[in-house]
Amino acid sequence: MTHATARRRELTGWLIGQTRGLLAPLGLAVIARVLGQLLGVALFVFAASLLIRAAGPQLSGQPVGIGVAVAALAGMAIAKALLRYAEHYAGHYVAFTSLQRLRDAFFARLIPQAPAATQGRAGAELTSRATSDIDRIEVFFAHTLPPAVSAVAVPAIALTWLAVVVDPRLALTLTLTVAALLALPLLTRRGAVDSADAVARVRGQIAERLGDDVQGMREILGFGIAEQRLDGLARVDAARTTAAAQVGASQATRAGLSVLLQGGGLIAVLLIGAGVGASPAAIMTALAVGIGLIGPARGFEDYITGLDNAFAATARIREIMDAAPAVTDSASRTAAAAPAATGDPCESEATPGPAAAAPLSGTAAPLSDTPAPPSGTAGSLSGAAGCLSGAAAGIEFDDVTFSYDPNAGPRALGCVTLHAEAGTWTHIVGVSGSGKSTLAGLLLRGWNPESGVVRLAGTDVRELPLAELRSRISLAPQRPTTLRGTLRENLTLAAPDATDEQIAEALMLAGLPDWTERLAEPVGARGQGISGGQLQRLSLARALLPNPQVLIIDEGLSQLDADTAAEVRQRLQAIENLTIIEITHRADLIDDAAAVWVLDLGTVVESGTAGQLRSRTGPFQRLEARMAYDA
Fold first, then answer.
1. Nearest CA-CA partner of 361 in 582, 604, 596, 586
2. How many Å apart are CA 337 and CA 183, to the nearest integer?
3. What is the Cα–Cα distance from 398 to 556, expressed in whole angstroms?
4. Least confident of 66-75, 321-330, 375-384, 509-518
5. Quick check: 428 and 439 in contact, CB under 8 A?
6. Could you give phi then psi for residue 525, rounded to 5 degrees?
7. Which of 223-232, 263-272, 384-393 comes out lowest in average pLDDT?
8. Rounded to an integer, what distance in angstroms lies between the CA atom of residue 48 and that of residue 42?
């Protein structure tokens, strides 16, 4: 068995698994197709018999009355049409139900893999797999089993009748012709499968490039690189054209050979019939059977052609669905926080100091041994705003090391130890690429650390169910996303049962109090029609609605002007029992009393209160000076 054959069998078994509970309608489609095609053969045979009888008594017995002939032909045609309808209805019911299951399963398997599975992958390419590729699998469910069964069953039944009732020699001649027609697609499909795979792959590349171009149109026009992008698209499209031409050439060759076989088979019936002395009536009947069997044989060829595309699309879908999630609930129960077999890197490496943090700190002082600042007590929120207060939770990173690709590239984090006490506002600062956002990703378990432990309220986050963990932590990112729908629907993504009072409070805290009158307004995908600052505040209100224990603001106020950002921070500070982690590079905007951890090149290089760090030469002071210089 070749690798390609084994692969097709595996894909077939996997796709059949999607039809569980659909055997009855699938069986109906098969039976309706077989009966309908047998009626098609019968129509040709009956028409031939009418011609034979009309030719005179020298070819047949008594002629059939015109009324009887018309009634019989009409009855068979109507019955064939009804069977055709039943076949399509049942087959497409199976197909569309199975496609729905595939899409549900695709997203169900993709969600646990995110964000690791989607990082660095174009959304348009994933969308292409979830839509176009799954649509191409429809042919497997609606047009595979019925044509495959009928391609064998209908000729077998019709040729057996021809051999028993008319002439076995003519039946044998047609049997050889039909066998050659059925074998032709199987013998010529190896190159077609490879070409279909290439077409599917290049279609994904086109979708990815088009998605990038549409999203980056402002940059493309601004930098004057439209011609360059068009040239790149033309190269990819040329590759698709080449692959599609190979598919077309294979299909055209197969179709041409099929027509030759069909015509040759009918000519063989005439020659052999005349050679063996068969009667004209027998020859005409055999020709009618041969013509009637063209449909089932061509249906098999068409199904094979569509099946190549379906298998190519299935392989692309399974590539996503079979990928192992970066984190799982089941694995978390046994995930060990102990060092890897090669030893704990944080035990063997020296504590990262000034040399490791050269881009930011230069000759910075060693790590501060000042303990993290004591937690403050947030004031209680007055009025209805108090309904968003809950129980805060502290967080800890204990000797955490992490790489996005352990086999290549530098570590994103190296032996990071930091903590934020419950109910405090802690700032994590550093230049771009220092590892700040990676900390948020590990806390939410988008990934697991290579070594070390991340704790929420003293519990290793790997020991918490993902749904529970992510319900206790909310994220307000720098570049939030909206979904097509109303403003209210976008606000309540994580809190669908939120009351009007809670929504109004969240909007007030985020600095959008007047938006309570706009909840029914439609919101475009990706925040179309909303300014960057408004979108960040909308995201902040959305993050507050689930009443989290921990709120992570990952540059989530970066597009607000200084006065608005200060007002929003003042409101957030008034929320009781909420731990806030603000990830920012704006060291100059942090209050002197605030807790600060400074990261550089994935390591903690300084910690303390902002006032303490400002009072001495070090990474924080230099970062603040850089902000002042850039301003």
1. 604
2. 58
3. 25
4. 375-384
5. yes
6. -60, 140
7. 384-393
8. 10
Q: In a 3-state reduction of DSSP, which class is residue 510?
A: coil
User: Is 241 in contact with 251 (CB distance < 8 Å)?
Assistant: no
Place of tokens 């378990």: 445
Given a contact cutoff of 8 angstroms between Cβ atoms, the answer to whether 562 and 363 are in contact is no
Residue type present at position 614? R
Long-range contacts of the stretch 176-183 (C-beta < 8 A, 24+)? 176/265, 177/261, 177/262, 177/264, 177/265, 177/268, 177/290, 178/265, 178/293, 178/297, 180/261, 180/265, 181/258, 181/261, 181/262, 181/265, 181/297, 181/298, 181/300, 181/301, 182/151, 182/152, 182/297, 182/300
Backbone angles phi, psi at 597, to 5 degrees: -125, 130
The token pair that represents 313 in the structure block:
């699309």
pLDDT category of residue 481 using cuts at 50, 70 and 90: confident
Residue pair 372/609 in contact (Cβ under 8 Å)? The answer is: no
Q: Check residue 591 and give left, alpha or beta (phi > 0: left; psi -120 to 50: alpha).
A: beta
Q: Pick the more confident residue, 341 or 303.
A: 303
Cis peptide before 115 (omega within 30 of 0): yes
Please state whether beta strands 522-523 and 550-554 pair in parallel, antiparallel, or not at all (unpaired). unpaired
* Helix (DSSP H) and strand (DSSP E) numbers for the chain: 24, 12
Range from 9-23, 68-82, 338-352 carrying the lowest mean pLDDT: 338-352
DSSP code of 18? G
**Where does 482-524 have alpha helices with state H?**
487-491, 500-509
In this structure, the number of other CB atoms found within 10 A of the CB of residue 582 comes to: 25
Beta carbons of 427 and 585 less than 8 angstroms apart: no
Which amino acid type is present at position 238? Answer: A
Residues 530-548, mean pLDDT to the nearest whole number: 91
Residue pair 570/584 in contact (Cβ under 8 Å)? The answer is no
First vs last Cα of the chain: how many Å apart? 68
